[in-house]
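Quick check before the chapter quiz. The format below is the same one you will see on the exam, so make sure you can read both the input and the output lines.
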Amino acid sequence: MRAALLISVPALLATVGCAQVAPAADPHGLQVLANTSVSVNVENGQVAVFPDPAPFIGDSNGAIKWTLVLDPSDYVFPDDGIAFSATAPAGKSLPAGCTGIGDPNVRFTNCKPKNPKRSEYQCAVTGNPHLSKNLCYFYVVKLVRVGGSGPAELVLDPWAKPK
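Here is the expected output.
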């Protein structure tokens, strides 16, 4: 029994050592924690995103990235593939838990396609712990067809919400 305990303790300590989190002084560790990924797909001629609303980190700087999960030879993000707006179209309801629409100019900057294939799109997120986490941000996803069949342009209007 005692020999088994002597073997188990070092194994347990080795396992705990593998689960360490990046220290707060490491900016790469914080950046990884503050990123949000959104999947974009085209199904039956309609664009869909997951998750909706996109839950970005509201207290710290980071990024929100949209990735096409379809063949990028069919559709790609144009330069204006993601566009945030301070207003939503008439009749567009706020998601559950949202009390209003936030100013996207305070939160999102440097929005552009992220890779040469234009299958990824990214915006920098400016963190602010003083802004309400009940404000949501309306945006439009636009894709353009470069091959295959289907509509020349697809548009969807989902939400982003701080968590």
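If your answer matched, good. Residues 8 and 14 are 10 Å apart (CA to CA).
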